[in-house]
Design goal:
The chain has about 100 residues and is an alpha+beta fold. The chain is built from one helix and six strands. Strands 1, 2, 3 and 4 form a four-stranded antiparallel β-sheet that branches. The chain is elongated, with a radius of gyration of 15 Å. The two termini are about 25 Å apart.
Length: about 100
């Protein structure tokens, strides 16, 4: 088993942005929300002492009108979830799973 150096540890974390669901088909608006979600993830990572590896962000657009999930909260909002890769000592202990960061 290969030992991972603390500087090479990686984990994942979610960032979120919420917007007006009536604009859920407006790509320019969704791009703004994606930037907000990435900024949210980056800020959360920094508050935990981690860096975000540039270029690792992926996005999921959750629109209550187009999802199988029963959304009881934010029913009139489009939700952007950004998943990023964390780097730094202890990052391997942080995993974005389900709706939350672990």
């Amino acid at each position: 088993m290969r030992k991972i150096s603390p500087m090479n540890e990686t984990g994942t974390l979610f960032g979120w942005a919420f917007g007006d669901s009536s604009r859920g088909d407006d790509e320019a608006y969704l791009d703004e929300l994606r930037r907000d979600a990435l900024a949210n993830a980056t800020k959360d990572a920094a508050s935990r002492g981690f860096d975000v590896e540039a270029g690792t962000e992926t996005y999921l657009v959750i629109n209550p009108d187009h999802t199988l999930a029963d959304l009881h909260t934010a029913t009139d909002q489009v939700i952007i979830r950004c998943t990023v890769k964390l780097v730094g000592p202890g990052a391997a202990d942080v995993h974005a799973e389900g709706p939350m960061n672990g």
